[in-house]
Design a protein that fits this description.
The protein is of the alpha+beta class and 301 residues long. The protein folds into 2 domains: 252 residues, Glutaredoxin (3-Layer(aba) Sandwich); 42 residues, no CATH class. The chain is 44% helix and 18% strand. It has 7 helices and 12 strands. Helix 2 links the parallel strand 4 and strand 5. Helix 2 crosses helix 3.
Length: 301
């Protein structure tokens, strides 16, 4: 009996180690950014044990279904469409009682948002949705309070922590390309790490992978998703010179555009210098003419 129990515990520990290694493997893929069709979605038959259904399948321009119903952190029944039509959004799928990666995702997002020169609740919103149907609005409210305290800036009304039934979760995760796997043995989920930027209409504009998000990229992503409704002239210049690459989940310089802009700037500088020299020459000529008239010579020097 004791031997059987010890064997069961050993098998359980092995499975847990396998799952943990698999999650780390998925995270390393997120940071590596090596594939363009669903960066975190290699074929199921080559994924580690316990991760056969874990990954991110890019679905750029996919509409997030507006009629899906959830409950917000106050317990109020809401439709996802209630948040659409106002401003760009960040969508992140987590479960609030996750012992590992979800907390890292929320911490990374909070850190990036703290240094953004954009205002939560005014320039953009955040939808944090639990994919664990067992979680409640009370759990969501506690998690919201924790991360708003870390955020430390106004705009908390723009960050929504949602919970919902399995059918709504299934439809949302499928639309977002978010694949995860539940282990009845541990009561935990294996999942990838990513956030998505949505347009105000609820279409997926970009994905950002891993647990840390570059504020510069996130700002440009939100500005671009807003179709120029937020941001400033500098952002528009940067968006002209930098292009979002789905293969890396980051912005990279478009060399031809940078050179074109540099060439234009050079022409403007040269033109300004010529104009200054021309005006200075004209002013000097007028001064000589006036001096000659005063001298009574009648000749220009």
């Amino acid at each position: 009996m004791a031997g059987r129990k010890q064997f069961a515990e050993t098998a359980s520990n092995r499975w847990k180690r396998s799952l943990a290694l698999g999650v780390l493997f998925a995270s390393s893929l997120a940071w590596g950014q090596g594939m363009t069709q669903g960066i975190l979605s290699p074929p199921a038959n080559v994924r580690p044990p316990g991760l056969e259904h874990v990954g991110i399948e890019q679905k750029l321009d996919q509409q997030i279904p507006p009629d899906l119903t959830f409950r917000d952190e106050t317990g109020k029944s809401v439709r996802l469409g209630d948040y659409f039509g106002k401003r760009p959004m960040i969508l992140n799928l987590v479960y609030y009682q996750c012992p590992m990666l979800c907390g890292e995702v929320l911490s990374g997002l909070t850190s990036a948002m703290k240094v953004l020169k954009l205002d939560l609740g005014k320039d953009f919103d955040v939808l944090t949705v639990s994919f664990d149907p067992r979680e409640t609005p009370a759990i969501a409210a506690a998690k919201k309070a924790e991360y708003l305290n870390r955020y430390g800036k106004p705009g908390g009304e723009g960050w929504h922590f949602l919970t919902g039934p399995q059918p709504s979760i299934d439809t949302l995760t499928k639309a977002a390309g978010f694949e995860y796997q539940y282990s009845a043995q541990t009561g935990q989920f294996a999942h990838a790490t990513a956030i998505a930027v949505l347009t105000p209409e609820g279409r997926i504009a970009q994905y950002y992978y891993g647990v840390e998000y570059a504020p510069k990229d996130l700002r440009l992503g939100l500005v671009q998703a807003s179709n120029g409704k937020i941001g400033n002239v500098v952002d528009q210049v940067l968006l002209y010179c930098y292009h979002y690459d789905p293969a890396t989940g980051k912005y990279g310089a478009v060399i031809t555009r940078v050179l074109r802009l540099a060439g234009l700037a050079t022409l403007l500088v040269i033109g300004a210098m010529v104009l200054v020299l021309f005006r200075r020459g004209s002013a000097n000529g007028e001064n000589r003419a006036q001096q000659a008239a005063r001298d009574g010579s009648g000749h220009y020097v």
